[in-house]
């Protein structure tokens, strides 16, 4: 029988409760699924705080730390997770914790962060020279660590085929920690068991790699309150129209040069890239709901030919529309 793996998660004042409970529930559900199949539990779950006892989360209720991290031998842990939350700022200045994490990284099999917990590991210098991600609202803060390779569009950076990324990794905002935990379970126990867990939790086994953290249709910048507002609100309903630079400029009553300048200033990308992401998001939604064929989806969302849709899916999601539809639709 394989040795049971200890999955530990830090807790501290004002931690985000879902950053802790979401991933740990995946491991707990893996134990349940194994027991349903007549196998022993694979994981032991452990909460580590400054001291044993209750710790108040940012939601107001409390979690109970099983043990104090200063008293734990990191070598006894299989996987250590560092969650995010409002309390991250204080923990980034917690010298003893940062030193313990640096020592733990050398001894645990896997060390990862959930959401803004990446800022704690970055402060400890553990992501120097490595790729990392975090909640979209904290990407700028993560980018202040010049030695960190920030992957803002990744749900998580765990990769079982890459020894470095299988040892040290991070996940994006909140529920992406659940995606990360499922990937860890799949690496440990196989795809079939991980799929059983995903089905039990009513979620995808694996959302497409490279997927942005939130829908670009919901991402109209708050700063775009002037000449682009009407155009940005008009675009999602006209994805099948001619959306060339000239057509957009005419719709917005400005020159093409001014349009491109405002897009880059206010949206952070050119109009062509923004529209491709809108069309991609619309195509994803249609394929997920199985409302139309791939050919029809390509036409309705402005890609025209299915091959154009396929190229965009491969470029941004690393999966074909057909595979995406079969896997998630």
UniProtKB/TrEMBL annotation:
Domain HTH araC/xylS-type positions: 229-327
Keyword Transcription: yes
Keywords tagged on the record: DNA-binding, Transcription, Transcription regulation
An individual GO BP term: positive regulation of metabolic process
Superkingdom of origin organism: Bacteria
SUPFAM superfamilies: Class I glutamine amidotransferase-like, Homeodomain-like
MF (Gene Ontology): DNA-binding transcription factor activity; sequence-specific DNA binding
Keyword 4Fe-4S part of the UniProt annotation: no
Membrane-traversing stretches: none
PANTHER family in alphabetical order: ARAC-FAMILY TRANSCRIPTIONAL REGULATOR (PTHR43130), HTH-TYPE TRANSCRIPTIONAL REGULATOR RV1931C (PTHR43130:SF3)
Designated name of the protein: Transcriptional regulator
Organism: Stutzerimonas stutzeri
